[in-house]
Specification:
Shape: globular
Strand order of the largest sheet: 5-4-3-2-1-9-8-7-6
Number of domains: 1
Largest sheet: 9 strands, parallel
Radius of gyration: 17 Å
CATH topology: TIM Barrel
Number of strands: 9
CATH architecture: Alpha-Beta Barrel
Strand content: 5-15%
Length: 271
């Protein structure tokens, strides 16, 4: 059982929701990423999604695009991201880390080399936005063989065939994109999310995390009523942007503690 799977099992046993915050590795510079990861854990993170900066992040809105631009300008590479994970893992053996990014940096490194390096560094899961499950079965299997959970996206427009493809290729959890748009955009349609989550959970047999559009403790709690996990990213990047550099970790932790407290007010299993 992977670290991600055991985390969900532990949380579900006590009726808690997973809190999955996202930060872009290397934003605003690589030296701050490890302190930010520590801050996420201090704030109540159960799993960390660590963005691999990319020059054309098509699924990401302006906030995370800016984060990628800053990280790339500071010299952040996929190899550097893996170094950061290795440093984090040396001091934290419990909190799962998921790399979230795009295919180009992975393919530039080489699929086999990436999978081996990610596993060695202590990565637990990989979410590659532009790897649809029906086109990357070899990669997904290689990841599983190396102890990595390949995580896939589902959206309001996903078909029954996509559900089946994700159930076959994926593991760990499903990332449900709660709206038709990019990260940080639009308003949540809670009724639509509430109707879709039980269907997805039944079809794929994995916990479902919901992201895109969650902005604060109140919206996180509303999603937590129906989902197994809440993913929050753009709002954390905004906190980093508006904070003095050295104050960013403490401010991020303080924000995340509010979200954690809201999720912990939920009783029982998701509806």
């Amino acid at each position: 059982m992977s670290r991600i799977q055991s985390t969900f099992q532990r949380l579900q046993a006590v009726g808690r929701r997973a809190l999955i915050p996202f930060v872009t590795a290397g934003d605003p510079d690589p030296e701050l990423t490890l302190p930010l990861m520590r801050a996420l854990v201090e704030g109540g993170a159960d799993i960390i999604e660590l963005g691999v900066p990319f020059s054309d992040p098509m699924a990401d809105g302006p906030t995370i695009q800016r984060a990628s631009e800053r990280a790339l300008a500071a010299g952040t590479t996929l190899a550097k991201v893996l170094e950061i994970v290795r440093a984090f893992r040396a001091e934290n053996a419990e909190t799962p880390v998921v790399l979230m990014g795009y295919a180009n940096p992975i393919e530039a490194m080489g699929l086999e080399r990436f999978v081996a390096a990610a596993s060695e560094a202590g990565v637990d899961g990989v979410l590659v936005v532009d790897y649809p499950p029906e086109e990357c079965e070899a990669f997904a299997q290689a990841a599983k063989d190396a102890g990595l959970d390949p995580i896939f996206l589902l959206a309001p427009t996903s078909t029954e065939q996509r559900f089946a493809d994700v159930a076959r290729a994926g593991s760990g959890y499903i990332y449900y994109v709660s709206l038709k748009g990019v990260t940080g955009s639009g308003a949540l349609d809670l009724d639509e999310v509430a109707a879709r989550i039980p269907v997805i959970r039944a079809r794929v047999g994995m916990p479902v995390g919901v992201g895109f559009g969650i902005r604060d403790a109140a919206s996180a709690r509303r999603i937590g009523e129906v989902a197994d996990a809440v993913v929050i990213g753009s709002r954390i990047i905004e906190e980093i942007e508006k904070s003095p550099r050295d104050a960013a970790p403490a401010n991020v932790a303080a924000f995340l503690r509010e979200v954690r407290a809201a999720l912990d007010q939920i009783q029982g299993t998701p509806r």
